[in-house]
Amino acid sequence: MSTADAVTGYSVAASAVSLNGLRKMYGDVVAVANVDLEVRAGEIHALLGENGAGKTTLMRLLYGLAKPDAGSISIDGAPVSITSPKIARAAGIGMVTQHFSLVKTMTVTENLALQDAGFFSLDLAGARRKLLTLCEEIGLEIDPDARIDSLPVAMQQRVEILKALAGGCKVLILDEPTAVLGPQDVDSLLDVIRRLRDTIGLSVILITHKMHEISQVADRVSVLRRGEIVATENASGMSIASLTALMVEGVQQEIIETGERSSQGTSVLAIKDLTVHLRGHDVISELSLEVRRGEIVGIAGVSGNGQSELVQALSGVFVHQTGEIHVDGKLVKGGSPSAFAEAGFGRLGEDRHASAVSALTVEENLILDRLHFFSKPGILLKRKIRKFAEESITNFAIKAKPDQAIGTLSGGNMQKVLLARLFGERPLAAVVSQPTRGLDVVSTRYVRQLLMVERNTGVGILLVSEDLDEILELSDRILVIFKGKIIGEVARKDFDRIAIGAMMAGV
Amino acid sequence: MLIAIAIIFTFIISSAMIRWAGANPFAAFKYLLGSPLQSKFGITEAILSATPLVLTGGAVALAFRAGYWNIGAEGQLLAGAICATFVGLHADGIPHWLGIILMVIAGALGGMLWAFVPALLRSRLGIDEVVTTLLLNPVALLVVTGLLNGPWRNPETKFPETQVLSENVFFPRVYPGSRIHLGLIIGIVALAICWWVVGRTAGGLKMRAVGLAPGAARIAGLKVERTLFTTALASGAIAGIAGAGEVAGVAHQLTDGISPGFGYTGVVVATLAALSFPAVLLISFVLGIINVGSFSASRALSIPSTIGEVVQAVLLTTVVSALVFMKYRIVLDKGKHRD
């Protein structure tokens, strides 16, 4: 039986959840406008939309975390009033967000037992039995006695899912579940989701930005735009292009010319024999690489093979770090972030929230790494700063006011501010880590185009990303990292997804 | 709103304690807050009492803005007082204007000196400044007592206090018929400078960034340790000037009672002011009123005059609690799920 047949088989099933005319306003802003959505029993229903399209609000309404202003929710055909997560769970709705609610110092079994525990009663044996039965039913393996903090993130996520199932969940909401996973773990998670549907007939609502996940697992897909469902279709009939079109239709987007791939220039970043010793072993060992003027070099690898450490080493934060880093042919001494900045090297960290001072304004964040340029003598030049901020906001299409706290911005806009700061400085070379993680399609496309433009103006960019498609799209050369070493180099003309994937796996 | 609730709680808790001390709480508060405002003398005394708080409160607020938890304003104030006293004991034959300037410089240097070691330990070795600055406070007091019982003992009275300093270093009175002295002007100017530096200069932006998100500041290439070090010294200098002000403006000599905890109260002031410099001025005045009012309350109702300190301490506790509730929310979750 092909997947398509399976889909048809399940799609005739009854409705598990139906949302009728659901509406939610926050002040004057319509977050969710008259949404009708039906999730059938035993289907994987993907919910696709840009940041701010209303996906999360919709799910918060369903899970009792927010009260709808209008409309109703029916479960198994009967209307229910969901006013709290407790009622939602009793009605068979479970939710797994990116922030897990597990007690890290307890074991898997204990965490499961905890959710049914009364004040004096804790049924460990029962929880364990339930866990093992579930695992067997679904075909999962998990050590019931492992402490949560000893498990990798992907495993913790599984525990979170099992916890929801043990709590009697019939409809599981997964809020961007793959955002916290590396590429390898994504496939196994998608496999788990499929198995949940096939073995115990679970309905899954999968919130995601990633198109290929939809084509891989979803039975049906609904597209949200500005709080409204603009389409609900069988996933097998939808191409990535048509989904994107539905999602962004009418959303303004300026197209940036990416230009020709330029020829090789001089070396702007050279790493020689870099070794980082951490947690008792070399997380990076004798790594050497070179980035030339006007090229993007992509670092491909399964996450946890030294990418994060490589990025951090490029600001010299490690005590046990040996080797040389040259920017524009000159050795960077001292190895502090400011030494790199002075050498003309920029950096976009993998976690934008850690790179921005959220309580400071957009303009203050924009100038934070170049204060000497915007002050004289030591006094901030308000007008110059405002002018620069307004230019950055225009040039980088940032939706914000200069004096707005950066913490109030959406992920995409915050990332644009950080990119404006990075490239506003006209660096010779830069390392850019996970530039589009968690961003919606429009912002992602914008950020990628921006990187191309900067490359064309001559910046040498080292791109570190867990998204192989991103690396394939942007890079002039790909270096494959495995266990802290560069184990292969592929030129653009030889790009081959499967071959690079095999190298990443260390084959 | 939460601050209002905090103030209501302060009234309730303090009332209970005043009741316990055997007085009518309403009468006590009438004296504490009301009586100083009924006479010109009361008001000027409240301003006098607020003067050191303006400086210590400003010093603490400045440090806290950069995320440097300077709890050592008391010790820095005393160190400033010691250095100022040294100048005052050797100031015969210099012009008055020079004496005043030297006093301010000596106070600032003393405060910086006392702030130097914790600042260095923090910025070089990452040693928690809360502990080091706090523990240096009693050490400063010991130095004061040591000096007063040794080389600086008053040769005439043999009391553990210095002789009266040279008149060349006295801070002039700035309001006729009151004890308000130059220290108040210096305090207000210092607050204005702090406010301007923090809001309008590159250094101030660095401080704010370091205080709000040290990690992000470091990523942006700011020298976090250097910023902390500089801020700590500046904070110490301001607290030290408060000490010079008490010596040169009020006591005109050094005694071991030169500061009844002005440095600690500075932490109260800065916190109540939510680290805003204009608010430091206002809060200092309010606490000054309570200080003066506690004496009249004590006289009229025969309760201990420490009642003023009790009210201030309760106020600090409730306001800090209110600030915690502003940042965090208690959710009564009847289910077991947490988000």
Automatic annotation (TrEMBL), chain A:
CDD domains: ABC_Carb_Monos_I, ABC_Carb_Monos_II. Residues 17-251, 269-507 form the ABC transporter domain. It holds the Pfam family ABC_tran. Keywords: ATP-binding, Nucleotide-binding, Repeat, Transport. Signal peptide: none annotated. GO terms for molecular function: ATP binding; ATP hydrolysis activity. This is Unannotated protein. It comes from freshwater metagenome.
TrEMBL record, chain B:
The keyword Isomerase does not apply. InterPro entries: ABC_transp_permease. GO terms for molecular function: transmembrane transporter activity. It holds the Pfam family BPD_transp_2. Keywords: Cell membrane, Membrane, Transmembrane, Transmembrane helix. The chain crosses the membrane at residues 47-64, 71-91, 97-121, 133-152, 180-198, 262-290, 310-328. Coiled coil: none annotated. Its main location: membrane. GO terms for cellular component: plasma membrane. It is found in: Cell membrane. It is a multi-pass membrane protein. PANTHER family: ABC TRANSPORTER, PERMEASE PROTEIN (PTHR47089), GUANOSINE ABC TRANSPORTER PERMEASE PROTEIN NUPP (PTHR47089:SF1). This is Unannotated protein. It comes from freshwater metagenome.
